[in-house]
Amino acid sequence: MPREPVQQNITIINNYNNSNNNYAIPERVVYDTGNVSPKSRGTAIFLCCLGFIGFNGLHRLYVGKTGTGLLWFFTVGLYLFGTIADLIVLCCGNFTDSDGRQLR
C-alpha cells in the first residue's frame, strides 16, 4: 500500500531578538524535502541501461523495489518490455522509490 505523500514544510528559525530593530534576520532556514527521494535519477537511468546488456532489475533494487527488481532479474526485464517502459518513465522524471517519493 503506498504511503501518503509528505507535505513539504519550510521552517525559519530566528534567534535574533533585538528590540531596536523593526526587522528580524533569520539565523538559518531548514527545508524539509519529504517528497524527494535521496536516490539519484541519473544513477537509476544508468542502472536501467545496464539491463540491455544483461544486468536487469538493478535500477529497481537501487530504489528499494526489491520484489519487482527480482522479477525483472529473473524474467530478463519482463522480456525487455519492462526495462524499456521503466527507462521512459525514468527519463520523464515520474519514477518513484519504494516510499512513493520522486527521485532527485
Layout of strands and helices, then pairs:
Layout: E1 10-13, E2 28-31, H1 41-49, H2 58-62, H3 66-74, H4 76-79, H5 81-92
Antiparallel strand pairs: 1-2
Helix pairs in contact: 1-5
Brief overview:
By secondary structure, the protein is mainly alpha-helical. The chain has five helices and two strands.
| Major beta-sheet overview | 2 strands, antiparallel
> Given the helix and strand composition, which structural class is it?
mainly alpha
Low-confidence stretches: none
Mean pLDDT level: 82
The residue fraction in helices comes out at 25-40%
The count of strands amounts to: 2
By DSSP (H or I, 4+ residues per run), the number of helices equals: 5
Beginning-to-end CA distance, first to last residue: 22 Å
**Element pattern in H and E:** EEHHHHH
Query: What Rg is obtained from the alpha carbons, in whole angstroms?
Result: 20 Å
